[in-house]
Design brief:
Length: 339
């Protein structure tokens, strides 16, 4: 279904910008709301950008009053596990309190369809692998707690109001647009694949492995990497489902296979052909040892089929992007800090 008007909150960020591109390619109209504290307007290939805060009720009323919005996609969350442990109130304020304002505005203006960018962090330390959607949710960090709080809020809103939602629990988003038009840029960077590729490019001296004594085959954390374009495709399927009358639901998004930190570094070495220096560091607070998805539910119910399942292919798309991205914000000092 095309020619819908979608409000993409946090649309100038990494995943949001890829979502905007996919929405435009499928014929939808797009309004982007982003405070640009983390986002990059130059990543936007389409749509109308409104700079503002998702917790600003007056601004939201203005947006929802000025034009018909058919659905909202929400990507505007703080997402650093370690930072959430150090600054939990910052995470609950941004991820929960401000989302409450967004949902309240949607209810006021009778906006009925909502797609939420959630996370595998809601599960905490898994008791079974791969993780299904029925797994107990016991987050081990404030980031996961904040996302779970929103999911619980969505559940109650759907019962109380004429409102339906789909929550998509990402595992590890990675990669870049296949044409290298847009990609992943954070400052400071915390995601493994871009950190490894920045090291391969000489923008960092080394990549740190946080903990090598986990109960995994090589002692480093196992993660499930899913390509950002495949994430965007899942959102399109969720949008079609909601518009078509589907009930509220929750789905995992992953490739159902785990790769250790060491395996990612080795794969990046093969892709780039460059040496990648490695250092050891203590474990990070709140990091589970293993997070691997079962995505059978969304494949069965919505027909999702990832196009980028191979780790080296995912890294290759990111490598093309990082070689082209020479923005000044990627200037890194010897300690890995942004300059």
């Amino acid at each position: 279904m095309s020619d819908l008007h979608i409000l993409v909150v946090g649309g100038a960020g990494y995943i949001g910008a890829h979502m905007v591109k996919s929405l435009a390619e499928t014929g939808h109209r797009i309004t982007i709301l982003d405070d640009l504290s983390k986002g990059h307007p130059e990543m936007l290939t389409s749509g109308r950008l409104i700079k503002g805060d998702l917790g600003d009720g007056r601004l939201l009323d203005s947006i929802f009053s000025s034009d018909t919005i058919d659905a909202v996609m929400h990507f505007a969350a703080f997402s650093l596990v370690g930072e959430s442990v150090s600054h939990p109130l910052r995470y609950f304020r941004n991820n929960v309190a401000k989302t409450t304002e967004l949902l309240a505005a949607m209810v006021r203006h009778r906006i009925r369809h909502f797609i939420f960018s959630s996370t595998a962090a809601v599960y905490g330390e898994p008791t079974q692998t791969p993780i299904t959607e029925s797994h107990d949710c016991r987050p081990t960090n404030p980031y996961g707690d904040s996302k779970l709080a929103v999911e619980q809020m969505l559940h109650h809103c759907a019962h109380a109001h004429d409102f339906r939602y789909i929550s998509l629990r990402y595992f590890n988003a990675a990669g870049a647009d296949a044409g290298a038009a847009i990609g992943e840029r954070h400052c400071p960077e915390t995601h493994l694949i871009p950190l490894v590729l920045q090291t391969a490019l000489g923008r960092r001296e080394s990549i740190a492995i946080f903990g090598n004594d986990y109960d995994t085959p090589d002692g480093t954390c196992l993660r499930d990497y899913v390509h950002v374009t495949d994430l965007a495709q899942a959102h399109l399927l969720a949008l079609d489902a909601l518009i078509g009358g589907a009930k509220s639901n929750v789905y995992n998004l992953g490739n159902s296979r785990g790769h250790s930190v060491r395996q990612v570094i080795e794969a990046a070495h093969r892709v780039t052909g460059r040496a990648i220096a490695v250092t050891k560091a203590p474990r990070r607070a709140g990091d589970p040892a293993v997070l691997i998805a079962s995505s059978d539910k969304i494949k069965t119910e919505l027909g999702w089929q990832p196009a980028y399942e191979d780790l080296e292919t995912i890294i290759e798309t990111a490598w093309r992007w990082h070689q082209l991205d020479v923005t000044p914000s990627l200037s890194i000092d010897n300690r890995g800090a942004c300059q």
